[in-house]
Amino acid sequence: MVGYETAVISFIKSWAHVTKVIAFSKARSTQLVESILEFVKASLESGEDVMLSRFGKFSVNKKDARRGRNPATGDDITLGARRVVTFRCSPVLKGKMNGKI
Predict the structure, then answer these.
(1) What is the pLDDT along the chain (101 residues), one digit of tens a residue?
(2) Which of 36, 39, 67, 89 has its CA 20 to 30 A from that of 48?
(3) Residue 101 CB partners (closer than 8 Å, separation 6+)
(4) Which domains are present in the chain?
(5) Would you say the C-alpha torsion 72, 78, 84, 86 has a positive or negative sign?
């Protein structure tokens, strides 16, 4: 997209931020970040929604099987049922992104 910069938050950046803000050691910060991400992942895998206050909500949605088309060959195919994760940001985050908070 024109006019937007993409920022990737790496694992290293996240534990470095925790180390700086909370004054934890690198090892403790890494453990904390890993623990939070494992909790979020396990919750989503079990079908539970995850809401992070003032950030947003990750939801698991079910998609039914549907017909599709192979773009390379044009053949009709059936795409199987699956679960997908969606994210909806909180009004607080939306406000900060748009300079209203």
Answers:
(1) 444 455 556 767 777 777 788 888 888 888 888 898 899 999 999 999 999 998 999 999 999 999 999 999 999 999 999 999 999 999 999 999 898 86
(2) 67
(3) 92, 95
(4) 1-46 (no CATH), 48-101 (4.10.520.10)
(5) positive
Non-local (6+) Cβ contacts of 93 within 8 A are 54, 55, 56
Q: What pTM was estimated for this model as a whole?
A: 0.70
54: left (phi over 0), alpha (psi -120 to 50) or beta: left
**CB neighbours of 92 closer than 8 A, spacing ≥ 6?**
54, 55, 101
Is 28 in contact with 35 (CB distance < 8 Å)?
no
The angle formed by the CA atoms of residues 63, 66 and 67, to the nearest 5 degrees, is 155
